[in-house]
Design goal:
Length: about 800
C-alpha cells in the first residue's frame, strides 16, 4: 500500500517502462486477477496509442499479452493547422477507452485515413484551411475481448449519424470531429463525445450512444443546431453520470441560447442530458459571449460530481470554479449567474486555464477537500462545507511549485491529478505536469509529483533520482492511474525521443527499498537480432574508436560479447568485451539513420541505452540521447550489415535477445574470501603503500610480502560484480573521483556502494581474470604496462594485455 510514509526517493520509484508505437493520450486502464487463456491469472494494464494500437500488458512485469492494430491513422496535416504538432505523427485512438468488466470488453474509437496524398495535405500552409477532402476519413467504434484482443459484437462499426431538429438536419463529419473525451459506459450504452481539431471548420459538439452488447446506435445529440462549435472535449475526461443515469457535460465555445425555431443550444455550458440524450437542464455563464470571443472555453475540463450531493463543479480557461446544483442549473441569465457558487480559483501567470478536472477527497482529518491545479499556478486544496454546501474560497493548502515549475508564463496545460488513499486516511495527490515550459503545441519534458493530501507537502518527484525515475516527455491531458500499489503514467517517449514516440512508465515501491527492477541483470551477453539471428559484432576484432558495429554470425568470441551495466531506471551501458569500447550513436548524432559505433566510454547520453520490454525475452534498445532505436540498417538479414539508429516501428530488426556469453555464468567466478591480486605481467601484487589509511591513496604494485596491506577482502555482489576492501586500511579499491577517463588512477576510499568501487570479473582463461570497473567499463591496469615496483595502478580500455590480467592468490 502506498502511504505518505513510504512514498519517498529511497523506497518509491520507477519499476519499468514499456515502449509503444505512438503517442499516448489515453489514460491507462487496469484490470486485476484476469484469466488470460493459456497464461494463467494476472493483473493487466491496457494502453492505446495514436497509431491505432491497443496493448494488453502485465501490470506487474510489462510483459505483452496481446496487441491489436486498427489500420492507418489520420495524418495530422489533414485535420490540423500546419504548426500544431500536438498529435505527433498520427491521429488514431485519442479518447481513453472504457472497459466493461462484467463482459470482459474494451470499447474505443479508432480513426483512419485512406487515399492520402502528401502533396495535397489540406492545411499544410499558413493560409486558411480549404476544407478540401482529398482523403477518405472514417471513425469506428471497436469492441474487443480483453483476454485475447479478439473483436466482439460485430466490431468494428463505422460511425455515422444525423441529428434532426426544427433547425434542420446535421450530418456527422468524421474528418473534422475530434473524438477527445474518454468513452463512458452507463445505462447499458457506450457514450461517445466529439469536439474539433484547432476549432477548424464548422464543427459541432456531438454525443452518440451505442448499445454495449450489440454496438447498435441508440441515441444522438448535438449541442449547436442552427449555430456551430460547442465542442465536447473536456481535456480528455469522460462524461459524468449522476445517480439517475443522467449525463452531465461541459462544452466549449459555441452558440448558446434559443435558436430562431426555439431549440436550446448549449455551447459554453454545463448541460444535463437524460440517458436517451434529451436536454433536461443547463447552465450558461452570463459572460458567455465574452468567453466565446476570447476562446475561453468553459468546457476545457470535465465536471466533478460531489458525493452525497446534487452538486457538480468545474471550470474553464478563465480559471473560475462554478458550483452548480443539477436539480436547478440556472440556465442563462445575462445579468447574474443563478448558480450555487462561483469564484476565481486559479491565479496563473499570463493564463489561468483549468484543464485538469478537479478531484475530491473526503479526508478523515480535514473533511471534504477539492483539488485543482490550473496552468501557471500552484496546486490548490479547497475545503468543501457539507452543511452549507459551499466551497471555502481560501485554500487550506497550496503546493510550493507551479505547473510548469519554470518558464510559467502563459504555459499550458497545468496539472492532471489522481488520488490514492486507504479509505479516509493516507491520502496522496499524484500530479503529472509539464516541467519547464509550454506543452500546448510542442513536446516538452514532464514531471511527476506526489503530495500529502492534507498539507500538500511534496513527498516525491521523479527529478529527485532522475536517472532512475525520469518520466520522459509530458503526455498531455493524462492523469496518472493508481492501482494495487502501482502508478501507471504514459509519456511521449524518453527525453529527446523522436516525434510520435510513446511509452508506459510504471512506478511503485522498490524491491527492498533499494532500486528499480532491472529488466536485464548486469552481466556479459551476446545480443542477437530477432529478425536475422545474427549478433552485434565488433568487426575484425577492432580496438579502434569509431568502428561501426555490424551483425554477424554468432562465433562465441569476445568481439560479440557485451558487458551490460545498469545505470538506473533501466538505462544501461554496453561495453565490448574485446575492445573495451562502448556502444554509442556515432559522434553523438541525433540523426535518423546515424550509424552505431564503439568508442571510449565517457558517460555520455549517446553511450547509454534505454531497455524496454517488447515481449518475453525480447527487448528494444533506444538511445538516451536521440530516442531512436538500435536498428539493423535497411532491415536486412545478411551478415555484415551495419547497425544504426532509427525511429522505433516495432520491426523485428529493432528487437533484440540477450544470451549470457560462454564462460560468463552468473555463478561466482571467484569465491568470497581474502586474496592478493597479482599482475600476470610483472608478478607483483596490488599494494596499499606504507599501510596508509588515507582515503584517496593511490594503489601501486610491489613484490608480495604477505602483509595485510596487500590483502583484499573480495565480496560477490551478484552477476560476477565484486567489491575489494583492503584488509589493512578497510578502504575500497576504486577509480579516483569516479572518473571515466583513460589512465585515471585507482585509489582506496570508504566504501559507499558506488559503481566506481565495483568491478566486474571476466575470465581470461586458466585462472586469469580481467577486472572491469562497473562505472567506467575500463580495465584494472598497471600504468604504462611496466614491471617495476612502485608503478601506479590505473584504468584503461581493455586490450588483452598481460598488465590488465590478474590472478587471485588466497
Amino acid at each position: 500500500m502506498l502511504t505518505p510514509t513510504n512514498v519517498n526517493s529511497s523506497q518509491f520509484g520507477k519499476l519499468y517502462s514499456v515502449a509503444v508505437d505512438g503517442q499516448v493520450y489515453t489514460q491507462p486502464l487496469y484490470v486485476s486477477n484476469l484469466a488470460i487463456p493459456g497464461q494463467g491469472t494476472h493483473n493487466v494494464v491496457y494502453i492505446a496509442t495514436m497509431n491505432n494500437s491497443v496493448y494488453a500488458l502485465d501490470a506487474d512485469t510489462g510483459k505483452q499479452y496481446w496487441k491489436a492494430n486498427f489500420g492507418p491513422p489520420v495524418h495530422p496535416c489533414d485535420v490540423e493547422w500546419h504548426n500544431n504538432i500536438t498529435h505527433g505523427s498520427s491521429v488514431g485512438i485519442l479518447g481513453t477507452p472504457v472497459i466493461d468488466p462484467s463482459t470482459n470488453t474494451i470499447y474505443f474509437v479508432s480513426r483512419n485515413e485512406t487515399n492520402y496524398n502528401p502533396s495535397l495535405c489540406n492545411w499544410n500552409s499558413s493560409a486558411a484551411p480549404t476544407g478540401v477532402n482529398q482523403g477518405v476519413f472514417t471513425q469506428s467504434l471497436n469492441a474487443l475481448d480483453i483476454t485475447t484482443g479478439a473483436p466482439k459484437f460485430g466490431s468494428p462499426v463505422k460511425i455515422t449519424a444525423t441529428y434532426t431538429t426544427s433547425d434542420g438536419t446535421l450530418t456527422f463529419n468524421p474528418q473534422i470531429q475530434n473524438q477527445r473525451t474518454a468513452l463512458t459506459l452507463a445505462n447499458g450504452d457506450v457514450y461517445i463525445a466529439w469536439a474539433s481539431h484547432d476549432d477548424l471548420e464548422k464543427y459541432h459538439g456531438w454525443i452518440i450512444s451505442y448499445k454495449a452488447e450489440t454496438l447498435a446506435q441508440d441515441h444522438v445529440y448535438s449541442d449547436t443546431t442552427s449555430g456551430t462549435l460547442g465542442g465536447i472535449w473536456q481535456a480528455g475526461q469522460g462524461l459524468t453520470i449522476d445517480g439517475e443515469g443522467n449525463i452531465l457535460v461541459s462544452t466549449g465555445n459555441g452558440s448558446f441560447g434559443a435558436s430562431v425555431s426555439g431549440v436550446i443550444q448549449t455551447g459554453n455550458s454545463f448541460a444535463k442530458l437524460s440517458p436517451s440524450l434529451q436536454l433536461l437542464d443547463y447552465f450558461t455563464p452570463s459572460n458567455s459571449a465574452v468567453l466565446n470571443s476570447g476562446d475561453q472555453d468553459l468546457g476545457s475540463s470535465g465536471l466533478l460530481s460531489i458525493p452525497g450531493t446534487t452538486l457538480v463543479t468545474g471550470g474553464g480557461k478563465q480559471g473560475r470554479l462554478y458550483l452548480v446544483n443539477t436539480d436547478h442549473m440556472g440556465h442563462f441569465n445575462a445579468s447574474n449567474d443563478e448558480v450555487q457558487q462561483e469564484f476565481q480559483a486559479i491565479f496563473g501567470n499570463g493564463t489561468q486555464h483549468i484543464h485538469g478536472t478537479p478531484i475530491y477527497f473526503n479526508s478523515q482529518n480535514a473533511g471534504p477537500i477539492i483539488y485543482v491545479w490550473g496552468e501557471n499556478d500552484f496546486l490548490r486544496a479547497y475545503s468543501f462545507d457539507s452543511s452549507t454546501q459551499l466551497i471555502n474560497t481560501t485554500p487550506i493548502a497550496m503546493s510550493t511549485m507551479t505547473a510548469p515549475m519554470t518558464n510559467n508564463q502563459s504555459a499550458m496545460p497545468g496539472g492532471f491529478l489522481s488520488l490514492s488513499a486507504n479509505g479516509q486516511a493516507n491520502g496522496i495527490i499524484w500530479a503529472s505536469t509539464p516541467f519547464k515550459g509550454d506543452a500546448s503545441q510542442s513536446t516538452t519534458e514532464g514531471v511527476l509529483h506526489a503530495f500529502d493530501a492534507i498539507t500538500l507537502k511534496e513527498l516525491w518527484n521523479d527529478k529527485e533520482n532522475e536517472p532512475r525515475d525520469e518520466i520522459g516527455n509530458f503526455a498531455k491531458y493524462v492523469p496518472p492511474t493508481v492501482a494495487n500499489g502501482k502508478l501507471f503514467v504514459p509519456s511521449f517517449g524518453a527525453l529527446n525521443a523522436a516525434d510520435g514516440s510513446g511509452s508506459l512508465n510504471v512506478y511503485g515501491l522498490l524491491p527492498n527499498g533499494t532500486g528499480p527492477t532491472n529488466l536485464l541483470a548486469n552481466g556479459t551477453y551476446v545480443i542477437k537480432s530477432l529478425h536475422s539471428g545474427l549478433a552485434l559484432d565488433d568487426p575484425g576484432s577492432s580496438t579502434a574508436d569509431g568502428e561501426v558495429i555490424e551483425q554477424n554470425a554468432v562465433n562465441g568470441g569476445k568481439d560479440e560479447s557485451w558487458l551490460l551495466t545498469n545505470l538506473g531506471s533501466n538505462q544501461v551501458s554496453l561495453v565490448n568485451a574485446l575492445s573495451g569500447l562502448a556502444l554509442e550513436a556515432a559522434g553523438g548524432s541525433t540523426a535518423k539513420g546515424a550509424f552505431v559505433d564503439q568508442n571510449t566510454y565517457a558517460g555520455d547520453a549517446w553511450q547509454q541505452w534505454n531497455v524496454l520490454s517488447v515481449s518475453s525475452g525480447v527487448y528494444e534498445l533506444t538511445n538516451v540521447q536521440s530516442g531512436y532505436a538500435l536498428d539493423v540498417d535497411g532491415g536486412v538479414s545478411t551478415a555484415g550489415a551495419k547497425i544504426d539508429q532509427y525511429p522505433y516501428q516495432e520491426k523485428p530488426w529493432q528487437q533484440w535477445s540477450f544470451t549470457s556469453s560462454s564462460g560468463t555464468s552468473t555463478a561466482a567466478l571467484i569465491a568470497n574470501g581474502t586474496y592478493s591480486l597479482k599482475s600476470v605481467n610483472s608478478g607483483l601484487v596490488i599494494d596499499d603503500p606504507g599501510y596508509s589509511t588515507t582515503a584517496g591513496e593511490v594503489m601501486q604494485q610491489y613484490a608480495a610480502k604477505g602483509g595485510k596491506n596487500q590483502s583484499w577482502v573480495l565480496k560477490n555482489l551478484g552477476s560476477n560484480i565484486i567489491s575489494l576492501i583492503n584488509e589493512s586500511s578497510g578502504l575500497a579499491l576504486e577509480v579516483t573521483g569516479s572518473s571515466v577517463a583513460n589512465s585515471a588512477l585507482v585509489d582506496q576510499n570508504s566504501y559507499a556502494s558506488s559503481p566506481s568501487q565495483q568491478w566486474r570479473v571476466v575470465s581470461a582463461g586458466s585462472g586469469i581474470y580481467e577486472l572491469l570497473n562497473v562505472h567506467s567499463g575500463q580495465a584494472l591496469d598497471v600504468d604504462g604496462g611496466v614491471k617495476t615496483s612502485g608503478a601506479e595502478i590505473d584504468q584503461f580500455p581493455y586490450e588483452e594485455k598481460a598488465w590488465q590480467q590478474w590472478s587471485f592468490v588466497p
